Amino acid sequence: MRKTIAEDFAALYKKINADGALDDFFHHPDSFGKGSNDFAAVMLLLGKLSLRLPSAAAQRAKRAEALCRQAVDADIEPLDPHRPEWELIQLLMAALADCAAHGGR
Fold first, then answer.
1. What pLDDT was estimated at residue 73?
2. Rounded to whole angstroms, what are the CA distances from 53 to 19, 33, 38, 90?
3. Which parts of the chain have pLDDT scores under 70?
4. Gap between the Cα atoms of 32 and 52, Å rounded
5. Do residues 41 and 31 lie in contact, with contact meaning Cβ atoms separated by under 8 Å?
6. What is the pTM for the complete model shown?
7. Residue 29 vs residues 9, 13, 22, 24, 74: alpha-carbon distances, Å
8. Angle value at C-alpha 41, between 104 and 90, nearest 5 degrees
9. pLDDT at residue 87 in the model
10. DSSP 3-state helix, strand, coil percentages of the chain (rounded to 5)?
11. With the CA atoms of 49, 9, 28 and 73 taken in that order, what torsion angle do they form, in degrees rounded to the nearest 10?
């Protein structure tokens, strides 16, 4: 994963995990781009954010979380770190975090 995307993911994870409820392993950019770690971080974030989203959005987030769990359980290698999908995922996660922080709006 490109360093800037890994740094953005780590910063987002740290922001969402400000209360320390999630594992702080993903506060560090070097945790990303290895094995199924990227899927694990997204899974943990989706699980936490889904608690603060409106019902329909929370259900979709839970389905996405389940897909991430399957990837983690299968130890799926992440997408090529130079593809734009990870930046897209990071931006969508940031949008979900903003939505959850503002009561689903």
1. 92
2. 18, 28, 22, 18
3. 1-2, 79-83, 104-105
4. 25
5. yes
6. 0.86
7. 7, 10, 16, 11, 23
8. 60
9. 82
10. 70, 0, 30
11. 60
Place of tokens 């950019």: 29
Taking all residues of the chain, what is their mean pLDDT, rounded to a whole number? Answer: 87
| Residue bearing tokens 């506060």 | 27
pLDDT at position 1 is 55
> Which two structure tokens, joined as six digits, stand for 44?
């943990």
Residue type, 97: A
State both tokens at 1: 């994963």
- Look up residue 7 and give its two tokens: 């740094």
Asked if 13 contacts 26 with a C-beta cutoff of 8 angstroms, the reply is: yes
CA distances from residue 16 to 33, 35, 75 in whole angstroms, order as listed: 20, 22, 24
